[in-house]
Amino acid sequence: MDSTTLVIVGVVVLVVIVALIVLSRRSSVGGRPALKALTPEARDRYLARWDEIESRFLEAPEEAVREADALILAMLGEREHPLGHERLPEGMRQARKDASRGGTEGMRVAMLHYRAVMEEMAGVPDAGREPMQRGRREIA
């Protein structure tokens, strides 16, 4: 082998190594994106809107599910979440799947998934769930 061939082989090996390092970092970070925190005012605004949506579920379940999806997407956008379908929280993807089944039961289960995503993404701690429960109708 001449020196030119060795240099080319070395460069190719180096590129492959760098690509493997980048891919391994992406897969380890790719599980959960780093999100911007909500301000307390934004958090309160989203939780208040969630209570409104959830309280209307019995009268208009399909509309409530659509509004819940839109509200969570808006919150994720404000938190700078990558909004590609495959990157959405699992609960949101499951909610969309359940809602697509149609019927009251599918909508009810979808709202439960949306509620879990809302609580997680709004940062509602286990001990602090009272604001979401005060004055709302149970859907489960």
Tags for this model:
mainly alpha; elongated
Task: Describe the protein in words.
- The protein is an all-alpha fold and 140 residues long.
- It has two domains: 1-31; 40-133, no CATH class.
- It has six helices and no strands.
- It has helices spanning 3-29, 40-55, 61-78, 90-101, 103-122, 130-133.
- The longest helix has 27 residues, at 3-29.
- The radius of gyration is 22 Å and the shape is elongated.
- It starts with a helix and ends in a 7-residue tail after the last helix.
- Mean pLDDT is 82; it is low at 127-137.
Mean pLDDT reading: 82
Strand content: under 5%
Number of strands: 0
- Seen as an oligomer or otherwise, the chain set is single chain
> Number of helical segments?
6
- Return residue spans where pLDDT drops below 50 for at least 5 consecutive residues: 127-137
In a nutshell, what does this entry contain?
By secondary structure, the chain is mainly α. Helices cover 69% and strands 0% of the residues.
